[in-house]
Amino acid sequence: MNLIISAHPDDEILGCGGVIAKEDSSVLILTNGADGRLDKATIDRHLENAKKANELIGTKELIIESFPNQKLDSLELTQIVQTIEKYIQKIKPKRVFTHSLKDLNLDHKIVAQATITATRSLPCSNIEEVLSYYVPSSSEWQFTESFSPNYFISIDIEEKLEAM
Description:
Elements: E1 2-6, H1 11-22, E2 25-31, H2 40-57, E3 61-67, H3 77-91, E4 95-98, H4 106-118, E5 129-132, H5 157-163
Parallel strand pairs: 1-2, 1-4, 2-3, 4-5
């Protein structure tokens, strides 16, 4: 069982859609991805699209939290860590996927840091691996250090493209 942790709706499909289609995976999205810049009807449509995409690709369980979009830096990191820990205890994943610490998007970096903290070695943990994923148009915009993948999973790209 995998747990895919993302900051915004669509990050999980862009970064791990192929893995979700191939392996049992639950998805935790921490923000609605649009508050503060779009009206409620548009936000609701985006969330409905995320639900449809995850259903189409075979997500076992989709969880969407309501942390503020593009404002995760206004929260205590422990609040985000504790939320992630709660779902790790519930889902008991063997592998966890999250954003890269090298991502330019601040929400992505914060989610990566919170995930790394939440997945630290604990006696009751099932976690065997924590992996970072690439999100096009965010990961590659970092000018000083860019994401450099070193772990690859063979996927069916057609399923991922359909969900996108």
